[in-house]
Amino acid sequence: MLKSLARQVVDLSLEVGSFIDQEGRKFDRSRIEQKESFNNLVSYVDKEAERRLVEGLRKIFPAGGFITEEGTVSQAEQQEYTWIIDPLDGTTNFLHGLPVFSISVALAHKGKPVLGVIHDICRNECYHAVQDDHAYCNDRTIHTSVATYLSESLLATGFPYYHFEKREPYLDIIKEFLEKSHGIRRIGSAAIDMAYVACGRFEGFFEYNLNPWDVAAGGIIIEQAGGMVTDFNGGPNYLFGGELCASNTGIHSAMLETIRRHW
To answer: CATH assignment of 150-262?
Structure first.
């Protein structure tokens, strides 16, 4: 069942991604809206993309509930199977014309992701995986990198829109990783960061203040590509815990050791 669902979700994501791409080419920045804070942005494109995804997913798998970023569906609709959707991950990039943004869709069973799709719209790369199978990019099998040391690793992170009281310890973590790795990239889409860990472009990714829709699809894709995803304590509560450390497994313990030292 999951493989069949994944194929349909890939097709739906490609369709909605085409809509996002077309709107981005003519987007009027006067239509930008603010959410909780001045730097947390949204647009009609996010909302319409989410509406189209929800409509399509209801047809594909009517039994599924929803967790959605833009509130298209009431959170009370969560069920045994739950779709977790970020219709436009990297909204700020999109609104500024920076070509790094994606669609992220996951299906969770009793709170654990079992299917994930990430469509990197501008590179036309669609990543997907289901539980107990390989991970793929455009239907080619992908794997995490084989690096075993931080000193040979390229890392990714993101910066939160709030909880700035944790800024200093977070910057201390970044400083140490900068000294011990090939560098850190901040590209502005957690879903793409995680997809790039899965395919070996990054060795690791870490961030806090994340939401389920940011990480659900990426988590299952990384795991099926041979990687590891935990919270900052090394436990499994990355989906709802707000903290995530993902890697190729080879550098995971070193990443956690550094994070714990400062966090």
So the answer is: 3.40.190.80
